Amino acid sequence: MWVQALRSGEYRQGRGRLKREDGAMCCLGVLCDLVPSEVGKWNRLAFEMAGDQNEAHLPKSARDWAGMCSQAGMVNHIKVQLTKLNDDGATFSEIADIIEKHWEEL
Q1: What pLDDT shows up at residue 49?
Q2: Are residues 38 and 49 in contact, defined by beta-carbon separation less than 8 angstroms?
Q3: 78/36 Cα distance (integer angstroms)
Q4: Whether residue 89 has pLDDT greater than 80
Q5: What's the CA gap between 54 and 42, in Å, rounded?
Q6: Contact at 8 Å (CB) between 24 and 13?
Q7: What's this model's pTM, rounded to 2 decimal places?
Q8: What are phi and psi of 41, to 5 degrees?
Q9: Which residues make Cβ contacts (< 8 Å) with residue 54, sequence separation at least 6?
């Protein structure tokens, strides 16, 4: 679902935050946008889940929902962090390729 959303063209890519004032999102912001509303929601520019609010990294509840270990999307064996890739200019499609290939490590 996350990979499809990143490749859909429906999201504008942003840097430095989960969601920017102009609505652009980083790759992890797109994941937050997919979380069911009963689990978490956007509160202005931060994503809020179970009292955990964050503007730059995945809140723990979002990580748990997605089955992720890392708040920044770290793939240890290839030393890649999704947030860094996003902020350094990798496209959503390039990031989706990494997620598909290394999902179990995230």
Answers
A1: 53
A2: no
A3: 31
A4: yes
A5: 10
A6: yes
A7: 0.86
A8: -155, 160
A9: 18, 46, 47
Which residues lie below 8 Å from residue 59, measured CB to CB, with a gap of 6+?
40, 47, 48, 49, 50, 52, 53, 71
d(CA 68, CA 77): 16
Comparison of pLDDT for 9 and 104, the residue scoring more: 9
Q: How far apart, in Å, are the Cα atoms of 101 and each of 2, 25, 28, 69, 72?
A: 13, 22, 17, 16, 17
The stretches of the chain forming alpha helices (DSSP H) are 2-7, 27-34, 60-66, 82-87, 92-102
pLDDT tens for each residue of 14-71? 998 888 889 999 999 999 899 888 777 777 666 765 555 556 678 777 888 888 887 7
AA identity, residue 63? R
